[in-house]
């Protein structure tokens, strides 16, 4: 019996241990966050902008991309503090292609056909190719609004104030935008008018990229309209005069804030930070010794070089221009492409053969679409007519340093205006220019240790068109807006997790 009593303490410990094993104690979780809107009112949020606002990705507008637009991400955060419904003018499917009156050649507004989104085809290289199928979106099928996402792909700043920009009749004469045609409130409506008519309590505004971008992506084939205050005389690929831009943006903000709405505006990134201009090298040409020797001979570029040397000896061009224009190839990898450069001295009055051509340098930016054009034949019946080698690349395939300067000067002028307007109207300011530069230069590290970069197709920041963000990139943009809004208005919105969004659509 004494032995039995002696065992009782140990038996008690055993029972306690068993009890601990069968009824584990869960540690307390983190206290719930009490989210607040601060000084902002998100009950009626309207987003104004172009393709970057609409959710354009992979060279198309499609439902999944619209769902992954940064304004839709913002709206999910705003819902935590009283934000209302966020209506989107959805495309009919995830293909992105559209018809106008049943026709697929919808090139009625001066822009490319409304084609399907791009996917990465490993059978093609790998290379971006349009996804198969015919998109079911019919532009003339009007949607019933109003819509909170007023992003209109292709829109320039001054077009947001243009009556009839959503007019069916205007499509035939290039005066309307097919995307806005789908959801404009009337034939005479303006984008800003439809946005302001909803009496928003909060808005985002990201406008102006197309006022520069179309010139840049066209390889500088447009005109810098600085000094021309009449945008009705501009072509699609022209750079908008900074004073026109400033007046337009001031007018937009006056309209959007007339009833006291608060908001956030973003500035314009440099085009040199996007994969469209950083992917294709200036020197992608491999040559064997025989081909290099032929190209350097008097039968090819040797005659051109000799003509330049003659003019330099006559002091008609400088030694620097002679060196810049002299074309030389070597055996092996790394030969620079030959390009047309309109900023060179016109020498054709002395010799018609001395056209404005030179080899590209690392200061030139080859446009992304040149990757499938360089090395093709200008004449299918002439195997020596290789584009970029025997045949110089036209201006549209490259953005030269002189053209880059025009783009940068306009961007800087626009961004100075936007910074001043943010202060004047007491709005949150998003430095999208610095954000995109950081993605290119350093990358953005995510919670799982991965890094989002601006590398084409693999970086996760940009879609396959090389211009518009991928969904994960749009999430990073959304977080930049959230950070600026929290700072300005004293809210504590949590932002979104970029890992919840794909870095590349794979099908």
From TrEMBL:
Residues 1-19 form the signal peptide. SUPFAM superfamilies: SGNH hydrolase (SSF52266). Keywords: Signal. This is G-D-S-L family lipolytic protein. InterPro entries: SGNH_hydro_sf. PROSITE patterns: PROKAR_LIPOPROTEIN (PS51257). One of its GO terms (molecular function) is hydrolase activity, acting on ester bonds.
């Amino acid at each position: 019996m004494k032995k039995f009593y002696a065992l009782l303490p140990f038996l008690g410990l055993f029972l306690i241990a068993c009890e601990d094993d069968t009824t584990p104690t869960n540690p307390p979780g983190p206290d719930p966050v009490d989210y607040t809107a601060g000084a902002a009112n998100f009950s009626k949020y309207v987003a104004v902008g172009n393709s970057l606002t609409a959710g354009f990705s992979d060279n198309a507008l499609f439902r999944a991309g619209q769902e992954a637009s940064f304004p839709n991400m913002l709206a999910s955060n705003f819902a935590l503090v009283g934000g209302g419904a966020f209506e989107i003018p959805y495309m009919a499917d995830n293909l992105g292609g559209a018809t106008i009156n049943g026709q697929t050649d919808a090139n009625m507004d001066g822009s490319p056909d409304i084609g399907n989104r791009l996917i990465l085809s490993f059978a093609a290289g790998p290379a971006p190719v349009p996804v198969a199928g015919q998109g079911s979106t019919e532009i003339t099928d009007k949607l019933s609004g109003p819509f909170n996402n007023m992003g209109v792909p292709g829109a320039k700043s001054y077009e947001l104030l243009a009556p009839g920009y959503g007019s069916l009749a205007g499509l035939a004469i290039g005066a309307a935008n097919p995307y806005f045609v789908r959801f404009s409130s009337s034939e005479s409506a303006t984008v800003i008018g439809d946005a302001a008519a909803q009496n928003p309590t909060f808005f985002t505004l990201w406008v102006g990229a197309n006022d520069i971008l179309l010139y840049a992506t066209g390889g500088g084939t447009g005109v810098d309209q600085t000094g021309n205050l009449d945008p009705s005389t501009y072509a699609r690929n022209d750079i908008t005069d900074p004073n026109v831009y400033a007046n337009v943006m001031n007018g937009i903000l006056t309209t959007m804030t007339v009833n006291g709405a608060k908001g956030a505006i973003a500035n314009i990134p440099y085009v040199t930070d996007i994969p469209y201009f950083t992917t294709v090298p200036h020197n992608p040409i491999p040559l064997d010794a025989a081909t290099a020797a032929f190209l350097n001979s008097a039968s090819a570029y040797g005659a051109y070089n000799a003509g330049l040397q003659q003019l330099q000896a006559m002091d008609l061009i400088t030694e620097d221009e002679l060196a810049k224009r002299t074309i030389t190839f070597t055996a092996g990898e790394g030969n620079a492409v030959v390009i047309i450069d309109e900023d060179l001295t016109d020498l054709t009055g002395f010799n018609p053969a001395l056209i404005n051509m030179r080899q590209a340098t690392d200061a030139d930016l080859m446009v992304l679409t040149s990757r499938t054009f360089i090395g093709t034949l200008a004449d299918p019946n002439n195997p020596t007519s290789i584009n970029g080698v025997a045949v110089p690349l036209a201006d549209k395939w490259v953005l030269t340093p002189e053209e880059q300067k025009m783009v940068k000067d306009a961007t800087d002028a626009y961004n100075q205006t936007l910074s001043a307007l943010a202060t004047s109207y007491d709005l949150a300011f998003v430095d999208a220019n610095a954000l995109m530069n950081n993605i290119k230069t350093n990358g953005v590290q995510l919670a799982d240790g991965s890094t989002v970069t601006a590398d084409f197709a693999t970086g996760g920041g940009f879609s396959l068109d090389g211009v518009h963000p991928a969904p994960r990139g749009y999430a990073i943009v959304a977080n930049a807006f959230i950070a600026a809004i929290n700072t300005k208005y004293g809210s504590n919105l949590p932002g979104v997790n970029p890992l919840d969004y794909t870095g590349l659509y794979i099908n």
